[in-house]
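Progress note, sequence design subtask.
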């Protein structure tokens, strides 16, 4: 009988392998939204698998290079067979970072099937090193904690309701002394603007979300936690819309902020690193190395795998 831990692992692996039906997948995604520990566990598996694939892809590419060289030199069939055996056995290294044996075997089997036409892979191998394609392979436009952020921000509007418009007491709002009623109205407008941007992001309306987040950033810098959120989603919107340099600039600013959300920080650091694949490849390894050396980083395994592939 499977232990609870094994069942959990199999569920996560099946979800990542896209073998669950729509209802089962929806349940997993809903649980990810509600359970931060479970969401983090899923992301750990995802990034570990990605890192292993990149690590193995590098070894496979080297072996195929050797096969191609032997073939062009007219080497004996036996020597080529030995290299092919080496290619397959290279898939048998142990799984790391909490990814169990079953998932690794599945990945290895899939890779071997894909390598059935080694010559085709060899012909297309160079295209895999194209910076834009590498970026596309490792970038995720979605934000798993988006719905949680929308709820968090929208809930703040509830706390500003019910203010008596006749209340003449004053408060300082963004450096301006105004009545409590006016402050409540301005606070509602601030929260509404940020909520609008998040909802536009959810609809993949990058053009308008960029406009909305830029407007928020220009007007509400003093509200630090929400300002940081707007800055993060501004960068993400720009990257989703292929504005690489502008996105990097926002991520740089976001990462320098104090008290930023840890999960957002991990995503921002990873997005910044791989965005440099398209903008300035000389900086990619510097940022990937920083991530790879951080034992607690969500993208550590993926950074290690990509670094090995880029070497």
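Output:
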């Amino acid at each position: 009988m499977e232990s609870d831990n094994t069942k959990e692992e199999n569920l996560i692996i099946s979800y990542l392998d896209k073998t669950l039906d729509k209802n089962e997948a929806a349940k997993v995604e809903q649980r990810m939204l509600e359970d931060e520990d479970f969401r983090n566990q899923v992301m750990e598996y995802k990034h570990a698998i990605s890192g292993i694939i990149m690590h193995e892809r590098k070894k496979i590419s080297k072996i195929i290079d050797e096969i191609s060289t032997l073939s062009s030199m007219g080497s004996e069939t036996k020597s080529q067979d030995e290299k092919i055996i080496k290619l397959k056995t290279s898939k048998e290294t142990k799984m790391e970072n909490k990814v169990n044996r079953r998932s690794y075997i599945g990945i290895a089997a899939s890779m071997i099937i894909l390598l059935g036409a080694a010559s085709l892979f060899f012909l297309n191998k160079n295209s895999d090193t194209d910076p834009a394609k590498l970026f596309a392979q490792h970038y995720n436009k979605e934000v798993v904690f988006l719905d949680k952020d929308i709820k968090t921000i929208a809930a703040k509007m509830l706390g500003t309701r019910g203010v008596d418009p006749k209340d003449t007491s004053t408060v300082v709002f963004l450096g301006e002394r105004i009545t409590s009623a006016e402050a409540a109205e301005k606070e509602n407008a601030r929260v509404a603007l940020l909520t609008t941007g998040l909802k536009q992001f959810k609809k993949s309306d990058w053009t308008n979300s960029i406009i909305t987040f830029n407007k928020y950033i220009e007007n509400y810098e003093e509200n630090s936690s929400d300002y940081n959120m707007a800055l993060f989603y501004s960068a993400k919107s720009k990257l989703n819309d292929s504005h690489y340099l502008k996105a990097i600039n926002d991520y740089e600013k976001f990462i320098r902020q104090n008290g930023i959300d840890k999960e957002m920080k991990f995503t921002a650091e990873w997005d910044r690193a791989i965005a440099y694949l398209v903008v300035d490849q000389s900086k990619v390894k510097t940022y990937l190395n920083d991530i790879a050396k951080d034992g607690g980083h969500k993208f550590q395994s993926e950074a290690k795998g990509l670094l090995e592939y880029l070497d």
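The radius of gyration is 24 Å. Work on this subtask will continue into the next period as scheduled.
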